[in-house]
Amino acid sequence: MKLSIIMPVYNEKETIKEILKEVQEVKIGDIEKEIILVDDASSDGTRRIIEEEINDNNVIKLYHERNMGKGAAIRTGVSAVTGDLVIIQDADREYDPRDYPKLLQPILEKRCDVVYGSRFLGVSSAMFFWHYVGNKLLTLAANILYNTLISDMEVGYKVFKAEVIKTIPIKSNRFNFEPEITAKILKRKYKLQQVPITYVGRDYSEGKKITWKDGLSAFWTLIKYRVVD
Q1: How far apart are CA 164 and CA 167, in angstroms?
Q2: Radius of gyration of the chain (CA)
Q3: Of 156, 141, 146, 152, which is closest to residue 209 (Cα–Cα)?
Q4: Per-residue confidence of the chain (229 residues) as pLDDT tens digits?
Q5: Which domains does the chain show, CATH number per domain?
């Protein structure tokens, strides 16, 4: 069995080599790993690091010539997937790859098709108050609109059977990938489970990119995909 790890990257020169090292060091039984790096037109030297300093045999390097956003990077990554399972891994080190085994377990045990990590079931730190409130409101909206009970819709750690993510058309280019994929998973009645994860957030001085505008866009995305596919 193979795990495809899609890593969207944008201006992460301080963390890219460390997060890649952490991902490579994780052991998940006899599961093979392929890491799909998608550089979204970084302008801080990240692309040079990927091109010149990362040479692992199991790393696939893909590049955008202009910045398009996280959703677009994931869409590019999905097109290169050859694994049986797919996980999204942000490059900023807010999420801990040591959580992979418990994230994969429900799918490996054939209990579900998709797994969401949850920062609110696990150990979290350094989350801004208004990010917390915004996340809770968006998650509540998702639960109301799609008649479900998830605790962390905006979480970055999402795991899919490859056949699931490959058959869902991803149209969002930016951070509204999260509500779009959630809406389409729930509308298609795929089985979804949650597991607690560890989360250590960073602040804007460290490169955090999500703003209140992304929250408004996410809310509109949830409403839109309730009525269209």
Answers
A1: 5
A2: 16
A3: 156
A4: 999 999 999 999 999 999 999 999 999 989 999 999 999 999 999 999 999 999 999 999 999 999 999 999 999 999 999 999 999 999 999 999 999 999 999 999 999 999 999 988 766 655 556 576 777 888 888 889 888 888 887 888 999 999 999 999 999 988 789 999 999 999 999 999 999 998 887 554 555 556 757 778 887 888 888 877 7
A5: 2-227 (3.90.550.10)
Cα 62 off chain centre by: 17
Q: Which amino acid is at 34?
A: E
Residue-wise burial string across 181-200, b where 16 or more C-beta atoms lie within 10 A, e elsewhere: bbbbbbeeeeebbbbbbbbe
Cα diameter, the chain: 48
**Closest by CA position to 215, among listed 146, 120, 122, 141:** 141
| Residue whose pair of structure tokens reads 């949650």 in the numeric block | 194
Structure tokens at 220: 């509109």
Contacts of 147 (CB under 8 A, 6+ apart): none
Query: Of 95, 93, 86, which Cα lies nearest the Cα of 17?
Result: 93
